[in-house]
Design goal:
- The chain has about 140 residues and is of the alpha+beta class.
- It has a single domain, classed as 60s Ribosomal Protein L30, Chain: A, CATH 3.30.1330.
- Helices cover about 25% and strands about 30% of the residues.
- It has helices at about 45-65, 80-85, 90-100; strands at about 1-5, 20, 25-35, 70-80, 105-110, 120-130.
- The strands form 2 sheets. Strands 3-6-4-5 form a 4-stranded mixed β-sheet. Strands 1-2 form a two-stranded antiparallel sheet.
- The two termini are about 20 Å apart.
């Protein structure tokens, strides 16, 4: 995996502008909200929901034999921009604990609502698992 940073561009914080990967098995992970395996929200707060949604993404990826560093792209949908901005440091700590220092190409999109109530955040991802990492 190669992070793409055009010459002269400022280094992005918390994401990559682009990622190039060698051929491998592509895994598409549907939007994951902050509920547990029983589809129960254990919190209505943004940070715990973000953490659970990221756990869910990683659980689906693990089913394919993948690891966090195989994620190439992630889209985050959030219903509360002020809450997200206020929680950026805490979300960053959750990210580093679960993802390490791996930052895929990312988009952050603020939306009016999510299908699953009381969901406040949804994450979807695309990963490429190298042939040597296949289970």
């Amino acid at each position: 995996m190669t992070v793409l940073l055009p010459q002269g561009w400022k280094l992005p914080v918390g994401y990559a502008n682009g990622i190039a990967v060698a051929p491998g098995r592509i895994v598409f992970i549907a939007g994951q909200v902050g509920w547990d395996a029983e589809q129960v929200f254990r919190s209505s707060e943004l940070v715990p929901q973000f953490e659970q949604a990221l756990h869910n993404v990683l659980a689906v990826l693990a089913e394919a034999g993948g690891r966090p560093e195989h994620i190439c792209r992630m889209t985050v949908y959030c219903t509360d921009k002020p809450a997200y901005l206020a929680a950026r440091a805490e979300i960053g700590r959750v990210w580093r604990r679960l993802m390490g220092r791996h930052f895929p190409a990312m988009s952050m999109i603020f939306v009016a609502d999510l299908l699953d109530h009381p969901g406040r955040v949804e994450l979807e991802a695309t990963a490429v698992i190298p042939p040597t990492a296949d289970a």
